[in-house]
Amino acid sequence: MRLFLNAFWVLLAIFGCLTGVFSQTEVGPAQRKETREIRVMSYNIRYGTADDGPNHWKLRKDWMVETIEAFRPDLLGTQETLAFQKDFLATKLSGYDAFGVGRDEGNDKGEMTALFYRMNRFEKIEGGHFWLSKTPEKPGSKSWDTSLTRMVSWVRLKDKLRPDETPPLLFLNTHFDHRGKIAREESAKLIRSKAVELAKGGPIILTGDFNAGDDEPPYAALFGDLEGKPSSLVDTFRSKHPQRESEEGTFSLFSAKETRGSRIDWIGCTRDWIIGDARIDRTQKEGRTPSDHFAVTAVLGWK
């Protein structure tokens, strides 16, 4: 009888290990500590003062929180975020620290590219902001043909699960101009160079609404060869889904049916990562979506 019980417990332990290996994208916090994956989400949440009628922020903000919590991101980049929206998410999303300033003057005025990181997972070493212009250190600066002020927020984070094994990672979040074609391409070039500078040799994760498809110049400027040099960044979604499909659109207009446009929301990373998963989150209720963009997600692992 004792031999039978011992064999039973051994088999049960083996089954538990196999379950953890083959379900890494669906595991709970305890198992995630063992897999050490990093779950990343990028979400244009639509600015909260927009006159959106039945899709107004007040009517969807709790659903937005539910959608984010369902994925359980370790890193979250948001776009079109006003100060009161950042504060709301920081209050409702338990265990996160928020970082962001308004694009107009570098304070609370204007939209933010506010980012969030899980505090029990990461320790912030430093953080900052730069503007997508010829004078990136000047708050509120504009260049090229941009119609609005655009910016990047960033933090360097130490992974508490691997404090002595890996260098700090650089997490950046941005939102490109919706009209200026030259501005979008130049913004991509600027981020490409600034990210390498700020990372100090460490790995990089980039989230954002880039207002461009993967067949346009900003995408090539960010992920392709530039002046004969390959980019240090890769597109997580295209890495997992090499074949372009017709229904990859991420601008939803609050409708779950709007899937045939361009994939304008991206998550990029350096080759320091194993890309375990990358998806477009098409959460919807009765045909409506929590924002006028679909969220995009990626599950990354340290190499």
Write the topology of this structure.
Layout: H1 2-22, H2 29-35, E1 38-44, H3 57-71, E2 75-79, H4 83-92, E3 96-99, E4 115-118, E5 122-131, E6 151-159, E7 169-175, H5 181-199, E8 204-209, H6 217-223, E9 233-235, H7 236-240, E10 265-270, E11 273-281, E12 295-302
Helix pairs in contact: 5-6
CATH homologous group name of the largest domain: Endonuclease/exonuclease/phosphatase
Task: Supply the number of helical segments.
Answer: 7
Task: Quote the beta fraction.
Answer: 25-35%
CATH architecture of the largest domain: 4-Layer Sandwich
Order of helices and strands: HHEHEHEEEEEHEHEHEEE
Q: Please state the structural category.
A: alpha+beta
CATH topology group of the largest domain: Deoxyribonuclease I, Chain A
Summed up, the domain count is: 2
Radius of gyration: 20 Å
Mean pLDDT across all residues, rounded? 91
| CATH class group of the largest domain | Alpha Beta
Helix content: 25-40%
C-alpha end-to-end distance: 44 Å
Instruction: Going across the biggest sheet, name each strand in turn.
Output: 3-4-2-1-12-11
What's the β-strand tally? Answer: 12
Description:
- The structure is a single chain.
- The chain is of the alpha+beta class and 303 residues long.
- The chain has two domains: 1-35; 38-302, Deoxyribonuclease I, Chain A.
- It is 28% helix and 26% strand.
- It is built from seven helices and twelve strands.
- A six-stranded mixed sheet has the order 3-4-2-1-12-11. It has a six-stranded mixed sheet with strand order 5-6-7-8-10-9.
- The longest helix has 21 residues, at 2-22.
- It is globular and about 45 Å long.
- Mean pLDDT is 91; it is low at 1-34.
